[in-house]
Amino acid sequence: MAKIIGCIGTSHVPTIGVAYDKGKQQDPAWKPLFDGYLPVAKWLEEQKADVLVMFYNDHCTSLFFDLYPTFAIGVGKEFQVADEGAGLRDLPTIKGNVDLQAHIAESLVNDEFDMTIFQDKPIDHGCASPLPLLWPHKPDWPGTVVPIAINVLQFPLPTPRRCWRLGQALRRAIESYPQDLRVVVVGTGGLSHQVHGERTGFNNEEWDMKFLDLLEHDPEQLTRMKHADFVRLGGAESVEQIMWLAMRGAMSPTVRKLHQNYYLATTTAMTVVLFEDGATATTSSQKTDEVAA
Question: What digits encode the pLDDT tens for the residues 16-49?
């Protein structure tokens, strides 16, 4: 059976991809950010992750306000990386596992989530910006991606609790898949940030730290918040944090934080955090004890 071994929360700021493509990993302004991803990439390599399920939002690249779904899942053998105005990136197409994607889609619908299914749609920076920081990509990606888009742009948005429950349903879907796959769930989006209006450039580091602590130890408290609470505390665009709740909902109640990097160099709090799934960690410990005995 497939199993979730961990989860990753990561920013998806488009300039991360631009800086990466321009080779600015050692630039003083960018090095603290890129260095923060190295332990995560190393963990993914050591754990031999087969699949990344990416909760992200499309920034009107493939989905538009005339028909913008609440939840959408990509089902296809490959997805192009979108050209968002700066030209095509030097990245291979994102690979998909159709059998797994279709199984997850069917399982989520049977779990009463009305998913929109998309094919042959390019994936924008919501997913593609952090991806090369997590996985090597030459000559190709080492595994497949399940892209799940969540509406955080056009009201009405799904509630934080609905996103949490989507994550729980995703776990049930993955654990009912018969193939032996090692799955990591990724929640994307910035923490505190606002890029328009009177509060342009707003950040709240204190709230960011509290959110990360609650995400680890008491995520249910976050599910009781309103969208207005996220906006008030972290800025308009920080409502993207509900995608982190979908990620956390896919994990067991107890997780172990392995790494966290927080970098506030621009108008967006850029963060990457890695959690090991508690159930997987317990199983690993039990196996270690059995071997020792």
Answer: 999 999 999 999 999 999 999 999 999 999 999 9
* 228-278 confidence digits (pLDDT tens): 999 999 989 889 999 999 999 999 999 999 999 999 866 677 889 999 998
What does the alpha-carbon distance between residue 293 and residue 289 come to, in Å, rounded to a whole number?
Answer: 6
Retrieve residue 265's tokens.
């160099």
Q: Report the distance separating Cα 266 and Cα 135, nearest Å.
A: 25
36 is in which domain, residue-wise? 3-287
Residue 292 lies in a domain: no
Tell me which residues are annotated as active site: 125, 193
Please indicate, yes or no, if residue 110 is contained in any of the structural domains: yes
- Tell me the whole-structure pTM to 2 decimals: 0.93
User: What CATH code is carried by the domain that includes residue 61?
Assistant: 3.40.830.10
Eight-class DSSP state of 123: B
State the Cα–Cα distance between residues 174 and 167, nearest whole angstrom.
11
> CB–CB of 69/135 below 8 Å?
no
Q: What is the DSSP string of 238-261?
A: GGGHHHHHHHHHTS-S-EEEEEEE
Q: How many domains does the chain have?
A: 1
